[in-house]
Amino acid sequence: MDVAFSHNSTLAKSEPAWGSVAKGKLPHVAFARKGDPEKKSTWGFPHHWVQGGSNTDDNGCYTDGTLYLHRGGLRAAWSAANGGRSGKKAEPAVLAHLRTHMSAIKMSKAELLAIDPNIEATTSELLAGGFLTEADLQPDIEAWVSRVLAGPMGSVTDADIEEMLAEQTS
Ligand SMILES: [Zn+2]
Q: Which candidate among 10, 28, 48, 149 keeps its CA 20 to 30 Å from the CA of 97?
């Protein structure tokens, strides 16, 4: 059970390479395909990681530490969920889960298109199918502001705000 972790779209200040994250130790909450919570083999599309995990449960999954969203993991999961490896698209619930994170961390349009040129078509399908609402796709402004504050500039300028507002209304 995921008692210790709550699902979030928070990025760590620094994250390990996705390749070095121990996916086998990730808790159920770190996956977009939920499967059977008791059966690790049915979970899929991991895109979170646990910082400072030390204890594990019977499944070998972390029970402590801090859960973060992983930018590289999100990219990899999105690519795989769009058929990157299998040629088969994952179920809409998986795509919607990942798409919501992309929106929350305000992944740039260029970045989205680099991962999946059909991102807009996929998004419309998810909206039409009721798997996402427009509200799900509203960028998380607080997260965006804190990222800018943590960035090299150390401050949010008027131009940053204008750029964000322009993107939101376009
Ligand atoms: Zn997630």
A: 149
